[in-house]
């Protein structure tokens, strides 16, 4: 038994199934459109509908040294995929061994471990070593192994643009949080434990929660954002700064932080708790101030602006 076989077997639905395979980073509206097609075809054929999600992204393994940032953590991705209404999600660790599997062997693993009867593929989709498993080739393999291949050839568009993880990343890099939300079908968010910081915010009247995030997490550009923060069951209006704290770290070499000021929250007992932050829109660039008084005055203006903008929701 291989690791790949074991991982697929752990997720097996216990009956014959239809699957689609990919990274699914972000689980955006384009992914949900494809998943809707998968679920519809699975229901018509009396099959369980499932997703095989690859992690890390194949590029990281196939091109050593390449840098990849993710729109969602693996945990968030799995949660979003399960919430899409599929019957099962199979996370598959993409290793150098998996990269060397032939398309035929990969198909065998899905047949043996999952009970594969239907694969949904896009026209540019390919499985296996050297991307040999094109839809045409997989159809041939499917005839030998008793599974079907169906093409999904109508990707979802938004304003004439195909909704893709690449499009979401481009909008995120531009700080266009409203466009990001339109592509995702929800607001972009991050979540992580509140970690200890320098506690400078508290000293100037604006205690902030520093969110601990993995270094491979995709983020919008440095700056100040209107956000909503979720601490346990509670929902708070908030202002979030992403950056290197240039007022206090003028060298510019400090590690980037995500600092969240929760409006209407009169405590700083959030350390160690998980905080989820939804980004509504970008207020301004991060800038260096002459001192804490000027910084505090600007934060006060930021909070007032956020109060107005969130009040319009």
Polypeptide structure, described:
It is a single chain. With 313 residues, the protein is α/β, with parallel strands linked by helices. It folds into two domains: 3-156, Rossmann fold, CATH 3.40.50.620; 187-311, Elongation Factor Tu (Ef-tu), domain 3. 35% of the residues lie in helices and 26% in strands. It contains eleven helices and 13 strands. It has helices at 3-11, 29-44, 58-62, 74-83, 96-99, 103-114, 135-145, 165-173, 177-184, 200-203, 292-311, and strands at residues 17-22, 48-55, 88-93, 116-121, 148-151, 157-158, 161-162, 189-195, 208-211, 223-231, 234-243, 257-262, 274-284. The strands form three sheets. The protein has a six-stranded antiparallel beta barrel. The chain has a five-stranded parallel sheet with strand order 3-2-1-4-5. It has a two-stranded antiparallel sheet with strand order 6-7. β10 and β11 form a beta hairpin. α6 crosses α7 and α8 packs antiparallel against α9. The longest helix has 20 residues, at 292-311. The radius of gyration is 23 Å and the shape is elongated. The termini are far apart. 34% of the residues are buried. The mean pLDDT is 91.
Provide a concise account of the structure shown.
With 313 residues, the protein is of the alpha/beta class. It is 35% helix and 26% strand.
């Amino acid at each position: 038994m291989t690791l790949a076989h074991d991982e697929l077997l752990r997720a097996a639905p216990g009956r014959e199934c239809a699957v689609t395979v990919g990274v699914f980073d972000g689980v955006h509206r384009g992914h949900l459109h494809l998943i809707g097609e998968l679920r519809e075809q699975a229901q018509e054929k009396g099959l369980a509908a499932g997703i095989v999600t690859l992690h890390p992204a194949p590029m990281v393994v196939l091109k050593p040294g390449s840098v990849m940032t993710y729109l969602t953590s693996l945990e968030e991705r799995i949660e979003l995929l399960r919430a899409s209404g599929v019957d099962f999600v199979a996370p598959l660790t993409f290793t150098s061994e998996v990269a060397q599997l032939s398309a035929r062997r990969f198909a065998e693993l899905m047949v043996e471990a999952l009970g594969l009867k239907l694969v949904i593929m896009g026209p540019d989709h390919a499985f296996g070593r050297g991307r040999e498993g094109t839809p045409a080739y997989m159809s041939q393999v499917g005839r030998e192994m008793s599974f079907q291949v169906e093409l999904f050839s109508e990707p979802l568009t938004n304003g004439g643009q195909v909704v893709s993880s690449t499009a979401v990343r481009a909008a995120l890099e531009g700080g266009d949080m409203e466009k990001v939300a339109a592509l995702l079908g929800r607001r972009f968010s991050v979540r992580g434990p509140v970690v200890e910081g320098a506690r400078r915010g508290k000293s100037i009247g604006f205690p902030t929660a520093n969110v601990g995030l993995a270094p491979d997490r995709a983020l919008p550009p440095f700056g100040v954002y209107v956000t909503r923060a979720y601490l346990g069951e509670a929902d708070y209006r908030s202002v979030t700064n992403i950056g290197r704290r240039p007022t206090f770290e003028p060298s510019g070499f400090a590690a980037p932080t995500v600092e969240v000021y929760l409006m209407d929250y009169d405590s700083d007992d959030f350390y160690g708790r998980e905080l989820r932050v939804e980004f509504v829109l970008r207020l301004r660039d991060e800038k260096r101030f002459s001192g804490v008084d000027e910084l505090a005055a600007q934060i006060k203006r930021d909070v007032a602006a956020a109060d107005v903008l969130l009040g319009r929701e």
